[in-house]
TrEMBL record:
This is Putative Xre family DNA-binding protein. It holds the Pfam family HTH_3. One of its GO terms (molecular function) is DNA binding. It comes from the Bacteria. Residues 28-81 form the HTH cro/C1-type domain. SUPFAM superfamilies: lambda repressor-like DNA-binding domains. Keywords: DNA-binding. InterPro entries: Cro/C1-type_HTH, IrrE_HExxH, Lambda_DNA-bd_dom_sf, Rad_response_metalloprotease. Signal peptide: none annotated. The lineage of its organism: Bacteria, Bacillati, Actinomycetota, Actinomycetes, Micrococcales. Belongs to the short-chain fatty acyl-CoA assimilation regulator (ScfR) family.
Amino acid sequence: MTFESESRQRARRRRASGALVDFDGKRLSVARRLRRMQRTALAAQTSVTAAAITQYERGGRPTNTVAAELALALGVPIEFFRQGRPLTAVTTGDAHFRSLRATPAISRDQALAFAEIALAVIEVIEQYVDLPQITDIIEPVDDEPSPALIASIAADTRSRLGVEPGPVPHVVRLLEAHGIIALRLPPEIDPRVDAFSTEAGHRPLVLLSPLKDDRARSRFDAAHELGHLVMHQDVEPGSKIIETHAHQFAAEFLAPTPELEPDLPRKVDWDALLQAKTKWGISLAALAYRCHAIGLWGEHSYRRANQHLRSQGYPEPGPLGPPESPYLLGAAVDLLNQAGTTTDDLARASRFTVEQIDDIVAAGSETKPRLRLAVGPTP
């Protein structure tokens, strides 16, 4: 009589259950990364090794039993792993993260997995609704563009996007009107992931942080990511240099220096700065920087202004209201619902879960204040 080890018995039972023939390893990878799980952590909740999970993600096929274990550990139905809407891989080299080195790799992977699902869901929606065409805004720069060149590119981009002289009324809606999909990152994404953008898919994506509850900062973030989409097509992301370029672009895109300068005070004058903030939708900190960069303020005035702003804390004085929100995907799904196509239909067409579809649509929808009524005891 021979005795099998427990591990061999488990392996034999798994083989007897048959392989999941139409298994899609990319979907396993996305589900794992969305949960911020390393392969070793996932393996610990199943009967297979981390090396086996690597093989599944690269094209191997698990048995039905193992697929069920993986689905349970990751909180998705086993149907999610079956081949459906193809997923476009979005790597770190495809995305311009604001703070690449300060963000853990597992958190970046989580955000990129969200972007991969978003691109696939957008493709499904586009089977039913014609979204705005993508405007050609690309104007690549060399390694060391001058501030004057970046200002010129920002002016060209305003022209291409049809922006009239003066403040940009709504930066996020402007991007959406020209075919760029804007989404808010969901709250379960690590908050250390700041705004980022990518062109890895069929449409450019701009993903905004949900934590910056400030209109001026949301506008600057959107303009900053637009700068990457315009200038940094073939540039390795993550360097401080290209982040500085995107900052310069955002400043000039939101408020071209020739138009902004007449509204800036020649000395530190908070009333005048608050008026400029309200008009242009730019933070006081950004306006103080522009006063110094243009040469209206000396180093002493600029340093004193920053000390005053730090003493005020966050949020800074002169709130402009809630941050700018995406609108396009929510509006598209509303049209589908009116035509009789539901989120369940989209889920079946893509083999995503209804919850995943809802998460993407919510990320691309306008946020509205929620009225809460508290009912107290009757007197």
